[in-house]
Amino acid sequence: MAAENRGPQVEAVAILFLTLSWVFVSLRCYVRSVIMKSFGADDWLAAAALVLFSLYCTFVLLGVRYGTGQHLDNLPKEDIPIAVKWWWCCELAYVSSTTVIKASIGIFLMRICVKRMQIIAIWVTMGVVILFSVFYFFLIVFQCRPSTYFWTQYKGASGSCVDPSVITSSTYAHSTISAVADWTLGILPIFLVWDLAMNPRTKVSVGLILGLGAIGSTATIVRIPYIKQLSQGDFLYSTTDVAIWSTVEPGIGITASAMATLRPLFRTFFARSKLFGSTPVQSSNTTPWPASKRPARGRYFRSGSSAVDAVAEEELGLRSDIGKGVGITTVINSTNVNELDGKGKRGKGGKEEY
Predict the structure, then answer these.
(1) Contacts of 26 by beta carbon, 8 Å cutoff, 6+ apart
(2) Relative to the CA of 320, which of 70, 109, 149, 279 has its CA 20 to 30 Å away?
(3) Rounded distance, CA 181 to CA 217, Å?
């Protein structure tokens, strides 16, 4: 059997998406906490998903070190159980991270959600995803008796596991539910921005921005044909494609959903950059992000188009006055025509301007 090693491919994908996710989630946290001053539950969930994804990538890299992506016949016998154990840990971290990021996307969309049916659609989607993910999580944990038999079987330990077809079928179901949830949360923004007081071009751009969080569905769909590898022999090598796309899916989801929150950062950059001919704000009375009149954090508008537009501006950074200097005119009304102006001259009437 050829000494083929696909471990470096798995390792490269894990490092790439771990780096991207940390960069963009860090930018998201900066935008939401510093620029917008509106760090909410969806942002906490995004941070939690990042932590879980980081654990996942750590398990992936450890698995590659001991044999993930290689043929069993080419590995030292003592390394096989270790590699399989880290593969098992990857499954748990994968389910956890994908579930949390979908919950984050759903709550983010609810910030500008108005209609009751939209709210119900989001809650139903998140509920189905969470319930099935919990079931799938525990199925993975207890697929073998004892659980450790999943990797100790390669040491000759005693135990038993459920039929591989059960895991394969459940994985197909989990992937299908994930893809449907991603598409639901990706299409819903079209209806969220439809009634907002924006020009068509802005509506399209905002809809696309909100829909970024559902890009992970592409990786989910691509991953589905490879799920059959879970029931094949030569486990560590035959499941390489599943391992790669299981990394891409949450990596894209976390990165894209973070990108959906970065519009205020880009607008601030373009406003302050001399490269784009912007004039620095001179007045201390002018701020690029005026204080909003939105409700206390954790509450969302449910009705009223003007209120919805205000929330959309606040949450997505749609302000048009960023970076523009605002002149201040002070008007002093005076009833005494004999008062002196600031230059020692008599006023001409009822008011003077400075």
Answers:
(1) none
(2) 109
(3) 8
Taking the C-alpha atoms of residue 34 and residue 31, their distance in angstroms, rounded to an integer, is 6
**What type of residue sits at position 73?**
D
pLDDT tens digits along 258-312? 888 887 887 766 555 554 444 444 433 433 333 334 444 443 333 344 544 554 5
What's the whole-model pTM score?
0.75
Long-range pairs, 166-170, Cβ under 8 A, ≥24: 166/139, 167/139, 167/140, 167/143, 167/230, 167/231, 168/227, 168/228, 168/230, 168/231, 170/136, 170/139
Give the domains, in start order, of the chain with CATH numbers. Answer: 7-265 (1.20.1070), 327-354 (no CATH)
Spell out a b/e string for 260-290, using b for 16 or more CB atoms within 10 Å of the CB, else e. Answer: bbbbbbebbeebbeeeeebeebeeeeeebbe
Residue linked to tokens 């991603």: 182
